[in-house]
Design goal:
This protein is mainly alpha-helical. The chain is built from 11 helices and no strands. The protein has one domain. The termini are far apart.
């Protein structure tokens, strides 16, 4: 019990420390692809620190809801980190199952809806409506992948579905689901060309337009951790974990696998223009329909 709690705290420390580093790598690779020098890798750390010490200027319909949504966004996505198997096992496996992971990820998206609604500006409401449309078509897609992993493993326990369990009874549908989720990864982390919710050049960060100071820092930090979380979940579900029991071997391997997803997402974002919201929703709908077909084939034993 004590070791599990310690491992959970280590997970949180890794997320808080590495998520901004991933963001810095993303910015640097993007700049190189676009023939720019780009900011230093440690720039995201400085951005967060600068926002945290700025004056918290509030505007909008509900200041209380704005504060709550910022805290909720950060707490929800950070809670998912507690269950990532960096050391080959999920630290708090005994206290949750796959359904809770789905709820927490959805709660992180709902916090953005609350943020846009409580801000009340035109751009914020547009961003909120786009976020809602994306959630309705995208969040069920990840739920299908989780359910398929649970079906393959015969359990909703995290230690059962993590570690590449999706391939346990055959590789055809497992590989198909992996390919499908790779096409969706960019959308899960909210990066171009699927960043229609924020769209800085179009609706000026959408739901977050009216935010500044510490609240904006929490939202920005949550967005960085979101990349860390989804790359970790993809690694946990689709990449078999090493058998070594040594944490100094398991953790670097896990983070290296995460880095592969991060770099792939960066390359796509840097070379593709943003999709319109109607194109985004149609893309999600096609992926969701394909995921349901794969799940049905998996239930048939393929």
């Amino acid at each position: 019990m004590g070791f599990s709690v310690l491992a959970a705290f280590i997970n949180v420390a890794l997320a808080l420390a590495i998520a901004p580093f991933f963001e810095g790598i993303i910015r640097k690779i993007t700049a190189i692809i676009q023939s720019r020098k780009g900011p230093p890798v440690n720039q995201p750390y400085m951005d967060i620190a600068k926002l945290l010490i700025k004056e918290d200027i509030e505007s909008g319909h509900s200041h209380i809801m704005q504060r709550f949504s910022a805290l909720l966004s950060f707490a929800a996505i950070l809670s998912v980190v507690l269950f990532l198997p960096f050391n080959g096992f999920s630290p708090l496996n005994y206290g949750a199952d796959a359904i809770l992971i789905i709820y927490l990820l959805s709660l992180s998206g709902i916090s953005v809806l609350l943020a846009g609604l409580s801000a009340g500006s035109t751009y914020s409401l547009i961003g909120m409506s786009r976020e809602m449309m994306s959630m309705m078509t995208l969040e069920p897609l990840f739920a299908v992948a989780i359910i398929m992993a649970a079906v393959k493993a015969g359990s909703l326990r995290l230690d059962a579905i993590f570690g590449g369990a999706i391939y346990s009874q055959g590789t055809i549908t497992g590989i198909c689901m992996l390919v499908l989720m790779l096409f969706a990864f960019q959308a899960f982390v909210g990066r171009a060309p699927f960043d229609a919710t924020e769209a800085e050049t179009e609706i000026m960060e959408g739901p977050l337009m009216e935010y500044s100071g510490p609240k904006l820092a929490l939202f920005k930090y949550s967005h960085m951790i979101k990349m860390f979380v989804y790359s970790g979940l993809f690694t946990a579900i689709f990449v078999p974990q090493p058998c070594s029991v040594h944490w100094f071997v398991n953790i670097p391997i896990f983070i290296a696998c995460q880095s592969v997803f991060v770099v792939a997402a960066t390359l796509i974002a840097a070379t593709h223009a943003r999709y319109r919201i109607d194109q985004v929703v149609r893309y999600y709908a096609v992926l969701f329909a394909a995921a349901l077909v794969i799940l049905a084939l998996s239930l048939m034993g393929l």
